[in-house]
Amino acid sequence: MSATITDVIFDYCDVLLDWRPRIPLEGQYPPGVIDMFFSADDPHGFRYYDRLSDSGWDEERILADYEIEHGPAVAWVFRIYFERQRLALAGLQPGMGELLRELDASGVRLWGLTNFTTKYVRAAHELFPELNLLRDTVVSSEEGILKPDPEIYRRAIARFGVDPAATLFVDDKPANVEAARGLGLNGEVFGGSGSSAAFALP
């Protein structure tokens, strides 16, 4: 990075947060049912609807559509997931709380840009106070746009008032990082180490 980094924009899931979506259903259903619910082979399974949720679909719309695809009995599994989904926020990723405090103390401004829902973001901030060091977060469900669509990065840059050349974007998905770089941001694929040295920061 040639410029001094003044701002860092973080993704949430699997960067700041240890997100484990199976936890809300554990103890509620047998493992085989949970495996079926999260199966990547189902084109209209959890991943499909999780993406729609992040795009702005509300829970009742998802449940109604899921019931059409899978029937009322299986749709009830999704309802239980929604009722208990806060449990999926298992914690901060190791070292990330310390990193946020360290960067904030050094004067680096902190922000969030996430494919997530407002409900989840609010719950995460309630559970993990270090997230309140983020000055603002652009949430995909509010914008109706998902990373890596360049428009959501443009909105974040404008809303935060950051200089892309002096801003680092951190995400666990290479495609999201490449999109950020395409708009002039510095990009780093998260490797699981919550330290300023891991991001080549001072």
Question: What would you note in describing this structure?
Answer:
The protein is α/β, with parallel strands linked by helices. It folds into 2 domains: 117 residues, HAD superfamily/HAD-like (Rossmann fold, 3-Layer(aba) Sandwich), CATH 3.40.50.1000; 66 residues. It has 9 helices and 7 strands. Strands 5-4-1-6-7 form a 5-stranded parallel beta sheet, sandwiched between helices. Strands 2-3 form a two-stranded antiparallel sheet. The longest helix has 13 residues. The mean pLDDT is 94. Keywords: Hydrolase. This is Putative alpha beta hydrolase.
Task: Give the key terms.
202 residues; alpha/beta; 2 domains; 9 helices; 7 strands; HAD-like_sf; HAD_sf; HAD-SF_hydro_IA
Which CATH architecture of the largest domain would you pick? 3-Layer(aba) Sandwich
Radius of gyration: 18 Å
Q: Please name the CATH topology of the largest domain.
A: Rossmann fold
Strand fraction equals 5-15%
GO molecular function: hydrolase activity
Protein name: Putative alpha beta hydrolase
Keywords: Hydrolase
Organism: Bifidobacterium pullorum subsp. gallinarum
Helices and strands, with pairings:
Layout (H helix, E strand, L loop, with lengths): L6 E4 L6 E3 L11 H7 L8 H10 L3 H12 L1 H13 L4 E4 L3 H10 L3 E6 L3 H10 L9 E3 H4 L6 H11 L6 E5 L2 H9 L3 E4 L13
Parallel strand pairs: 1-4, 1-6, 4-5, 6-7
Antiparallel strand pairs: 2-3
Helix pairs in contact: 3-4
